[in-house]
Every structure is written in structure tokens, then in C-alpha cells.
Write a structure and sequence with these properties.
The structure holds two protein chains of two kinds.
Chain A: H1 4-7, E1 9-14, E2 20-25, E3 32-38, H2 52-60, E4 63-64, E5 67-68, H3 69-78, E6 82-87, E7 92-98, H4 103-113, H5 120-138, H6 141-154, H7 167-172, H8 175-185, E8 191-197, H9 201-212, E9 232-238, E10 244-251, H10 260-271, H11 277-283, E11 290-297, E12 302-310, H12 315-332, H13 336-353, H14 357-371, H15 377-385, H16 389-396, E13 405-411
Helix pairs in contact in A: 4-9, 10-13, 10-16, 11-12, 13-15
Chain B: E1 5-10, E2 13-19, E3 25-30, E4 36-43, H1 57-65, E5 68-69, E6 72-73, H2 74-83, E7 87-92, E8 97-104, H3 108-120, H4 129-141, H5 147-159, H6 172-177, H7 180-190, E9 197-202, H8 206-217, E10 237-241, E11 247-254, H9 263-274, H10 280-287, E12 295-302, E13 305-314, H11 319-332, H12 339-356, H13 360-374, H14 380-388, H15 392-401, E14 408-413
Parallel strand pairs in B: 3-9, 10-14
Antiparallel strand pairs in B: 1-2, 2-3, 4-8, 4-9, 5-6, 7-8, 11-13, 11-14, 12-13
Classes of the chains: A alpha+beta, B alpha+beta.
């Protein structure tokens, strides 16, 4: 970072109730972003509760004892906030960005919303919206590929739970079940309040303390059963698909593992857009509509993921080439040139990731939730810069791709 | 060399615009604090100007361009860009093709030189065309698996009688028919500097950026290709039958154009309708009735014609009510908005403007877009003062005189809906 690096300041505090508050203050920014990062998601659900984290995320916007849903939406709009929330396997994140003068107001609103009223009438109404959302994804095979895919490799591990849940689990879910899930999981010690951009830290901290002091504490544990990935292949015919969709998963490294930068570089070499092993083997030959590889460092486990979309007539050939390329990678390793290019592109992404408070917020909040520490972009840049081919090749010694799982979602009647 | 110049101020930054003698317009916004640079290169060659019978030609050309340029084959070219850490995307759109890149400032000269190779010295090897064609055909087929996109593609085709109704991916027939010779000839005709725009934003000084652009692109030659006029059908309804879990609903209403004196009043009224989660559509369709997960209205259009597009996705049993509420809310806008709604709409639009300033990529994109659609770059101050100048009386006069009525509509789902009396 040329000029902003010196201006950035990291702040952190733990409140008496256990809530962690962190900030990356940038006086030169034109806006500020802030949000709550809740360490809860589908992996913290039982089968009976499938989809409750995501449904609860919707219910948060339905208001509190002092605000109804309409008032919540209006208050965001009165600040001109750009805001939303998302739920995954491991995190539920509420975020927003505003002009600096609205930071106290946005902080007040999000803090209030973390204690939602969960009114039964809102619950029944929002259940319809969730069922609509599930129906939307059901019509898009590429979404179902990612919803179903991970469950195959992780076996019975809770990481395989779908964030969406199913029509049946959502229909059966009761308001009391959600209320008790909220009481367990939204304990202050399980949340991180993160802020980024142009803001007054002392004021924000005082305000957060006052706004959250009444939050009751609870034990929000997460279970970490051992992760033994399965290998194999499943073919699932899907009536709504006219194209074929593949996802391949292999064991990676966790979000806490220092080798996560190496894993990203390896995924880059295998399947980044425009120049990678799979690009030249599949895209350049016109065999697929798209292909990509990525590495997901999660809480205590990690996965390499490859996904591709193609004409069903090409499917067998694509699978053969995919397996051949992964074998070749494991046998011969990466080259120095490939790693150099991957590093150059990652370096550019890091610089552009620092442009807006909103993009900084995700990195800041999620990074802290996983590792319990702050990593400035300059440090990430150094880590990436230090990557060597032999370090990356060491990741391949365990032959992760030979033991992966292939999920095929194909046209046809089930 | 330059025959048209101007300096516009945007907040702290300046945008300098200069048109080179070959017709290429270069715009630069300095962000001295930014260690990165982003550019958007826009060429007014898109599906609307694909030759008859070769629908999809632009799409094929855009893919084929990457198969080797200058002295480098496809792989060497990609590696040269990766050596400079260039993050890139490109695409063939309805009215224009675009090439976007972001990278560290130090590499500007080298990156522009590579993109000049790409556009001025493509190799277009014969044997690389068929894979590009195969990809495009798969892209076309995948439309079946994306019902919202499929619905909007059909709706646009229904709205426009001119080539603006085309699917930018092309048609199976056009994609299959194109020969290497056809495409090379077409490329010479349409991918020219006349009307092309190179917008740069980030850590680049104006003089240095202009010089680099001039060195890279000054030898580019070609005549302007004619852009077609948009022609519209009479508003009507279409239905696509598909065994989907959801019904897709799309509406298109005629809107005032970007040069209309009350253009900003129309943007504010759209914001009241669908600007945030407190807006009318979200409140009435989703929050009060739970009919949908997604509902919105947003401004759209092509050069010379603007419209308001609206969307909702819902299950078949909710579809009639959803369509009814959606259309009723849009048409009710003519009855006027409240002061509070106007205030929220204003702060929403102003905040979005400020945030756009923080990202070099957004700025490059908006500058290119402004130059393409309006022939000039609007300053932040200009947009802001235009927005602030719209008071309640003026806005309510505007919506009363310009009601949204008589839309084109499309539905996709298991059964046809009774649409709009």
C-alpha cells in the first residue's frame, strides 16, 4: 500500500460481556462499514433444525421489541445504508456501509437487531419467503450443485449440512426452536463486532459497550468431530438440469493453518480463470462452458473445490481430463513460473481488496473469527510474496486429489 | 493531436477526457492515493451490430481474440498478463464489447501495450475458432438452466423489434454459420477506434496515462460502424412454459430518456419504488405479504431508449397475486410520493455516489458508460446538485405526468397467467 498503510490503525477490545470489538480505522476513507460476525451456521445445527441459522438471519430484519420490520427497513434507508446479511456453514454475517456521519446510528441499529423479537406472526410470514428462496435455487442446478456437493466428501461431519435446509425442515420448524437456538448461539462471546473505514474508535467502543451490556451470556460451543474425507463418486440425475454439472472436492487445509496461502496458490495453478491447468485442458479446447478451482479454508478443516459446467455429451471426456490433470499435478508438482504468476495476481487482488471499507470489513471480521487475530493487508501481501514452489508441492505429497470425491449433477429423472 | 478536450472535477479527483485523432476517446481520473489502476476499454461492437445471419459474431470474436496476439500464442499472451499480475475480465454485450483490467500502477505502460496487441494485432488462428464456438453453444444451452435469465432474454426480444432484442450470446444458427473469413472481415469493420473509449482510474497521472494510451493505440485505424436505432413493438405479453418450481415474472415499462430534463426525478421515483428494503415494492410484495424472495424494479435501457424493468419470482400458487401487487404498486407511483420517501431516496442515491468514488474499478466502469451513453462524463457535483434540486412538488408533478403504464410482460412457469387487464 503506497500511502494509506501508514494511516491505518487497528483497534481491539473485549467487553465485560465477552463481546469482541475490532476496528481498522482509515481516516482517509470516504465511508465506513461495520457489522456483526456471528460464529454460527449450518454446521451448528441438528438435522431437525436444518436451515434455522439462515431463517434466523431473515428474522433479524423483522425487528425487535422497539422496532417492527417496516421501521427497521426505513431506518436503514434513512441512512442511505448499503447493507445485507448472509449465512453459510460456519458464519452468519450482518454488514452495512454508510457515510461516516451515520456510523453511530448504524451501530445502534445493528446492535438492537442482534436481539430480535422473533414474533410468531413474522415467523410464519417469513417462512414463506424462505420457501420461495429454496424454490428459486431448486430451479438453478448450479446452485444445487454447491448446496449438495460438500456433504458427499465430508460424510457425516456437520460441515456437510446445507445452509438452506429443505422445504420439509423449514416447514416443520417452530418459533420456539428458533428462539432457543438464538439464545444459545448469539451469546456475546460468540460474536465479533467489526468496523472499518472513517470512524471514531473511542466513541464507537463506548457506544457498543452501552448498547450490548444487557446481552445475556450463554455457552455457544461448536463441536469439532474428526474430519475423515470420503473418496468416491455420486451421480445424481436432476430433472431441472439440461446441462451437466460437476463438483470435485479434495482435502485442503483449515482457515487457521499457516499453509492456507499455499493452498490458494495451488488452487490458482489448477483452475484460475484465463490461465491455469484446467483452463488450457478444458476451456481452451471448448469442452466446458466454465471451470474453476478454489480452496476453502474452514474452521478446523479445508477443502479444494473444482466445479465445471458442460454439455452432457462432453461429460465423460471432461471427467477423464480432470482426473488426468489432477494426477499430473500430484505427480509432477507446480512449476516456478506458475507460482510466480499466481503470486502476482494474488498481490493485485490484495491491493484492490483494500480499496473500500466494505471489502476490508469482510476480511477483518472473518479473519478475526477464524484466527483470533488481526492481519493487515500488508502482512497478507508478505505471506503471499514468500510462497515458494517447494512449499506448494509439499501440500501435494499427501495426494489429496487422488482421494477426492466427484459429484455429478446430470439431466434426467431421479 | 487532440481535437476535443475537457477537464471535469469529481470530488477531489479530476477526470480528463481527450479524443485521439484516430477517434479513440481516453478518459483519466487521477486517484493519487491509489497504488492500483483499473481501466475499462469499451468498443461499440455488440450483438446489435452482428451481421444478419451471424448472430453471436461479437461473442465469437471476443473469445477468439484471446487465442493469440502480437507475437504470442494464447498461452504466452495469458502468461504475459499474469506476469504483471493483471486481473481481467472481458465480454461481448448487447451494444458494446468491454475489456476490463486492474493491476499495480507501475505496470500501466506494459499492460496497455499488451491490450493494444490484443485488439490491433490478433492472430485469429483458424483451429482455435471451433473451441470458441463450442463454448458459446454451451453458454447458449445453459440459458435453459437459469429461468430468470431465460425469461428476461425472451422479454427483451419481445420489447425490441430492432436488433436490440437479441441475446448477446447469439443464436445456435448464427454461431454455427460463422466462418473464420466472415469473422475476420467483421472484426475489421466493427472493432475500430471510432467511438471506442478507454477509461482509466487510479494511481495514474493524466499526462503519463495519456502518453501511454497514445503510444499504445495511436496506430489503430478504422471507420466508424453505424449503430442501429432502437425500434419497439407494441406492449404485449408472452409466456414461456417450463416445469419450474418458481414462476418468473418480468415487466418492462417505457421511461424518460437520460437527456430528459426530469431524468433525475425519474431516478428518484425509481428509488422510492425499489431503492432499499424500505421501498414500496419490497414492503408490499415481500414484507407484508411474503409472496417472494426477490422483487425489484431498476432502470435499464439501450442507447436512445430507456425503460424501467421489474422482476419477481414466486411459486405458481402465489403468481397471480404477485403480478397483481407488483403492477399495482408501480402504477400507483403516479399518485405521488411523500416527503419522507423523497428524503430517503436522496440519501440513498448520494451515498451510492460517494461510495463509487472509493473504487477505481467502479469509476472506470462509470466513466466509460457515461461517455458511451451521453458522450460526456458527469461530475459528482453535477449529479448531486441535480438530485438535490428535485423537490417534492417537482417530483410529484413528474410522476403524475409520466405514469408507468402499459408494460410489456413475460412469465415463465408451469402454466400461463392471466396477465394485466
Amino acid at each position: 500500500m503506497k500511502t494509506t498503510a501508514s494511516a491505518l490503525e487497528f483497534k481491539q477490545a473485549r467487553l465485560e460481556n465477552g463481546l469482541t470489538v475490532i476496528a481498522e480505522v482509515n481516516p482517509e476513507a470516504k465511508s465506513a462499514a461495520l457489522g456483526y460476525f456471528v460464529k454460527t451456521g449450518s454446521r451448528d445445527e441438528t438435522a431437525e433444525l436444518a436451515g434455522v441459522s439462515h431463517f434466523l438471519e431473515h428474522m433479524v430484519f423483522k425487528g425487535t421489541e422497539q422496532r417492527d420490520a417496516l421501521e427497521v427497513n426505513l431506518e436503514f434507508d434513512r441512512m442511505g445504508a448499503s447493507y445485507n446479511a448472509f449465512t453459510g456453514e460456519e458464519n452468519t454475517v450482518y454488514y452495512g456501509a454508510v457515510l461516516p456521519e451515520f456510523v453511530p446510528r448504524l451501530l445502534e441499529l445493528w446492535s438492537d437487531l442482534m436481539r430480535p423479537a422473533l414474533r410468531p406472526s413474522d415467523f410464519e410470514m417469513e417462512k414463506n419467503v424462505i420457501l420461495q428462496e429454496i424454490a428459486l435455487y431448486q430451479d438453478r442446478p448450479q446452485d444445487m450443485l454447491m448446496d449438495w456437493g460438500p456433504s458427499f466428501i465430508v460424510g457425516g461431519h456437520p460441515f456437510g449440512m446445507s445452509p438452506l435446509g429443505t422445504t420439509a425442515s423449514i416447514t416443520a420448524l417452530g418459533q420456539q426452536q428458533m428462539a432457543s437456538y438464538h439464545a444459545r448461539r448469539y451469546s456475546p462471546s460468540n460474536l465479533v463486532l467489526a468496523l472499518a473505514g472513517k470512524l471514531d474508535w473511542d466513541r464507537a467502543l463506548d457506544q457498543a459497550r452501552e448498547l450490548t451490556q444487557h446481552w445475556p451470556k450463554s455457552e455457544a460451543e461448536r463441536s469439532y468431530p474428526s474430519f475423515s474425507p470420503r473418496s468416491g463418486e455420486v451421480v445424481k440425475p436432476y430433472e431441472k438440469a439440461t446441462q451437466s454439472y460437476l463438483s470435485f472436492f479434495a482435502r485442503g487445509v483449515s482457515a487457521q493453518d499457516e499453509r492456507r496461502y499455499l493452498a490458494s496458490a495451488l488452487a490458482h495453478v489448477l483452475g484460475s480463470d484465463g490461465n491455469s491447468r484446467l483452463h488450457w485442458a478444458l476451456v481452451d479446447k471448448g469442452l466446458v462452458e466454465s471451470v474453476g478451482a478454489d480452496h476453502l479454508g474452514a474452521d478446523g478443516l479445508g477443502l479444494f473445490m473444482v466445479s465445471a459446467q458442460m454439455d452432457p455429451g462432453n461429460e465423460e471426456e471432461v471427467i477423464e481430463i480432470l482426473r488426468r490433470e489432477m494426477d499430473r499435478l500430484e505427480a509432477g508438482g507446480v512449476t516456478a513460473g506458475e507460482i510466480e504468476r499466481a503470486k502476482n495476481k494474488l498481490a493485485t487482488s490484495i491491493v484492490f481488496g483494500g480499496e473500500t471499507p466494505m471489502s476490508r470489513l469482510f476480511n477483518l471480521g472473518l479473519g478475526y473469527q477464524y484466527t483470533g487475530r488481526y492481519q493487515p493487508l500488508s502482512e497478507i501481501a508478505q505471506r503471499v510474496n514468500a510462497i515458494t514452489p517447494s512449499q506448494v508441492n509439499a501440500l501435494l505429497e499427501a495426494k489429496p486429489f487422488s482421494q477426492g470425491f466427484l459429484f455429478r449433477l446430470v439431466p434426467g429423472k431421479p | 493531436m487532440a481535437f476535443r478536450q475537457g477537464i471535469y472535477s469529481i470530488g477531489m479527483a479530476l477526470v480528463q477526457v481527450e479524443t485521439l485523432s484516430n477517434g479513440l476517446t481516453v478518459a483519466i481520473e487521477e486517484q493519487p492515493w491509489n497504488p492500483g489502476v483499473a481501466f475499462q476499454l469499451l468498443i461499440p461492437a455488440g450483438a446489435t451490430t452482428d451481421p444478419a445471419g451471424l448472430e453471436g459474431a461479437t461473442n465469437l470474436l471476443e473469445g477468439w481474440l484471446w487465442k493469440g496476439a502480437g507475437g504470442r500464442d494464447a498461452r504466452a499472451f495469458a502468461e504475459a498478463l499474469d506476469d504483471l499480475g493483471v486481473r481481467r475480465s472481458s465480454g461481448a454485450g448487447l451494444e458494446a464489447s468491454y475489456f476490463a483490467a486492474s493491476f499495480l500502477s507501475d505496470h500501466l505502460e506494459k499492460v496497455l501495450t499488451l491490450y493494444a496487441d490484443l485488439l490491433l494485432r490478433p492472430q485469429f488462428p483458424d483451429d482455435a475458432l471451433d473451441p470458441v464456438r463450442q463454448m458459446a453453444l454451451q453458454e447458449l444451452a445453459s440459458l435453459e438452466d437459469e429461468p430468470p435469465r431465460k425469461m428476461f432474454t425472451a422479454l427483451r426480444r419481445a420489447v425490441f423489434e430492432s436488433s436490440h432484442g437479441r441475446n448477446p450470446t447469439g443464436t445456435a444458427q448464427g454461431l454455427k454459420a460463422a466462418t473464420p473469413e466472415d469473422l475476420r472481415k467483421d472484426y475489421q469493420r466493427r472493432f475500430t477506434p471510432q467511438g471506442a473509449i478507454l477509461a482509466l482510474a487510479g494511481g495514474v497521472a493524466v499526462t503519463e496515462g495519456l502518453e501511454a494510451a497514445r503510444r499504445a493505440f495511436a496506430s489503430w485505424r478504422g471507420n466508424a460502424a453505424e449503430l442501429p436505432q432502437a425500434r419497439l413493438s407494441q406492449p404485449h405479453s408472452i409466456h414461456l412454459e417450463q416445469k419450474s418450481a418458481q414462476v418468473q415474472i418480468g415487466l418492462v415499462y417505457p421511461d424518460v430518456g437520460i437527456e430528459h430534463p426530469e431524468y433525475y426525478a425519474s431516478r428518484l421515483s425509481t428509488q422510492v419504488l425499489s431503492g432499499g428494503m424500505g421501498s414500496r415494492l419490497f414492503t408490499e410484495v415481500r414484507e407484508k405479504r411474503g409472496l417472494v424472495y426477490s422483487v425489484y424494479a431498476s432502470p435499464g435501457g439501450v442507447k436512445g431508449y430507456s425503460y424501467l424493468g421489474a422482476y419477481a419470482g414466486t411459486t405458481p400458487e402465489n403468481a397471480p397475486a404477485t403480478l397483481q401487487v407488483l403492477a399495482a404498486e408501480i402504477e400507483r407511483l403516479q399518485e405521488g410520493v411523500t416527503q419522507e420517501e423523497l428524503d430517503r431516496a436522496k440519501i440513498g442515491l448520494r451515498t451510492a455516489l460517494v461510495m463509487q468514488q472509493e473504487s477505481a474499478r467502479s469509476r472506470a466502469g462509470s466513466i466509460a458508460n457515461d461517455l458511451f451513453l451521453r458522450g460526456r462524463v458527469r461530475t459528482l457535483e453535477e449529479i448531486e446538485s441535480q438530485i438535490m434540486a428535485v423537490d417534492l412538488g417537482r417530483l410529484n408533478r413528474f410522476v403524475a405526468e409520466n405514469p408507468y403504464t402499459r408494460p410489456w410482460s413475460a412469465t415463465l412457469g408451469p402454466a400461463k397467467l392471466e396477465v394485466l387487464a
